[in-house]
Design goal:
Largest sheet: 6 strands, mixed
Keywords: Hydrolase, Serine esterase
Structural class: alpha/beta
Strand order of the largest sheet: 1-2-10-11-8-7
Number of strands: 11
Order of helices and strands: EHEHHEHHEHEEEEHEHHEHEHH
Family: Belongs to the AB hydrolase superfamily.
Helix content: 25-40%
Organism: Schistosoma haematobium (Blood fluke)
Region (Disordered): 132-167
EC number: 3.1.1.89
Number of helices: 12
């Protein structure tokens, strides 16, 4: 049986892995390659601060809501709905080693369908809060904005497309009380994060709101959730990334030339055009690959703007005749 066409898609270091796999030519039916927000030059530069970043982030969390709150507050992910789906995959329960995603699948842990807005905090280097804004729980782009009149700038000569509809998260100024509350609950120490603002994300099967993990009570067994002390960390990282440090350089060195050497159609999604290094800039001007910019998204482009990324992938498939557009959509 003939293997179906395969398109490799990878984000960040996963993008580097996808490039290396494509270069090995071990997939006979490889049809295309999509790399999301990883460029050799900027990746190698960022490695210098990666160790400090990993050691500075919380090493444990009191609950899944608190972990999700941290991911949004720290701008690791700018879309709350995306964070609820993806961030638990990075965590495991400290006592059992069971992954948070398996707990959610089995019903041991439950996240509600409604997520309140979460304050986003920008901190200075010394830890002081410089600004506070409130992030919407809605995706970056509303479905109503997706129509045939979508305004984008396309430079056909350079094969560069800038998504002008990749809008930033809605925000508003908080009143003085909210500002005081938010600044008091911001700290690198995970124990300082309040689960109250997203505490409603955990609920009982009966429909009544469960106690927040900020109080001293435990969650009753009949609710279907694990009994948990409020002051005891419950989750930690599944993978100790510090242990992978010896391999970081190897994944990214020479990445641009490897990417350009792949003969299949290629798509590079970037949050910032400045991340293009010399080799990629020349290759892009020569039309060797397609570039899509999402200037207002963060590093997790596919999570901050999932609808736009899906649209971009669909256009890539149609443009290279991997599939056909449906007229009924």
């Amino acid at each position: 049986m003939e293997a179906p066409p395969i398109i490799l898609v990878g984000h960040s270091m996963g993008g580097a892995v996808a490039v290396h796999v494509a270069c090995k030519r071990t997939i006979p039916s490889l049809a295309g390659l999509v790399v999301i927000d990883v460029v050799e030059g900027s990746a190698l530069s960022s490695l210098r601060g990666m160790t400090a970043f990993l050691r500075g982030r919380p090493q444990s969390f009191l609950s899944l809501p608190q972990a999700i709150e941290w991911s949004v507050r720290s701008s690791q992910i700018r879309n709350v709905n995306s964070a609820r789906v993806s961030f638990p995959g990075q965590l495991k329960r400290i006592t059992s080693g069971q992954t948070a995603t398996s707990e959610l699948d089995s019903g041991i842990a439950v996240l509600s369908k409604t997520v309140p807005s979460i304050p986003s905090v920008t901190s200075t280097l010394d830890g002081r809060v410089s600004s506070v804004s409130r992030l919407s729980s809605q995706p970056l782009v509303e479905d109503s904005e997706i129509d045939n009149s979508r305004s984008s700038e396309i430079n056909s000569e350079n094969n560069l497309e800038v998504d002008q509809n990749s809008t930033s998260l809605p925000s508003c100024h908080n009143d003085a009380d909210s500002l005081q509350y938010n600044t008091e609950n911001v700290s690198v120490d995970s124990s300082k994060f309040s689960s109250q603002s997203i505490g409603e994300s955990i609920h009982s099967i009966s429909g009544s709101t469960l106690p927040s993990f900020t109080d001293s009570s435990t969650i009753s067994k009949h609710s279907g959730l694990v009994t948990c002390q409020s002051d005891r960390p419950q989750y930690t990282w599944r993978i100790d990334l510090i242990k992978t440090q010896p391999f970081w350089q190897g994944w990214f060195s020479g990445l641009s030339k490897l990417f350009l050497s792949i003969p299949e159609p290629k798509l590079l999604l970037l949050a910032d055009a400045d991340r293009l290094d010399k080799d990629l800039t020349i290759g892009q001007m020569q039309g060797k690959f397609q570039v899509q910019l999402f200037p207002r998204a963060g590093h997790a482009v596919q999570e901050d703007t999932p609808d736009r990324v899906a649209e971009c992938l669909a256009r890539f498939l149609v443009r290279n005749r991997f599939t056909e557009a449906r007229s009924d959509l």
